[in-house]
Design brief:
Elements: H1 21-58, H2 69-110
Helix pairs in contact: 1-2
Length: about 110
């Protein structure tokens, strides 16, 4: 009989799992599906935000008529600026993440 204790996630203190391999695969698939849904929701929120901000800035008198050239140019520039801003934010986040990983590796190497 196995006397090892498992936590609510099916992991023991030694890192072994009480999950059947097929259950572990199903769990991993569920996690990936949730991550995908979160990613889609985040992208939808970004698009919604871009639409809202750019509409407020560029469309002065909503009407049933087509957009004028000035409104079109304003929308294009607004969306480009928003996307450029997102790129800068994402690059900064990735750079900080890499720095944190390198710092963690360095500290792990020093403790050996």
């Amino acid at each position: 009989m196995n006397s090892e204790q498992y936590n609510e996630f099916g992991q023991s203190a030694s890192g072994t799992s009480s999950l059947h391999p097929s259950d572990a695969v199903k769990l991993q698939q569920a996690v990936q599906e949730i991550e995908k849904m979160v990613q889609i929701q985040t992208q939808l929120e970004i698009i919604k935000n871009i639409n809202s901000k750019c509409f407020e800035r560029c469309i002065y008198k909503p009407a049933s008529s087509p957009l004028g050239n000035g409104e079109r140019q304003c929308l294009a520039k607004c969306m480009d600026r928003f996307q450029d801003g997102l790129k800068v934010v994402n690059q900064t986040i990735m750079q900080r993440h890499r720095q944190e990983q390198m710092a963690a590796q360095d500290s792990a190497g020093m403790s050996l």
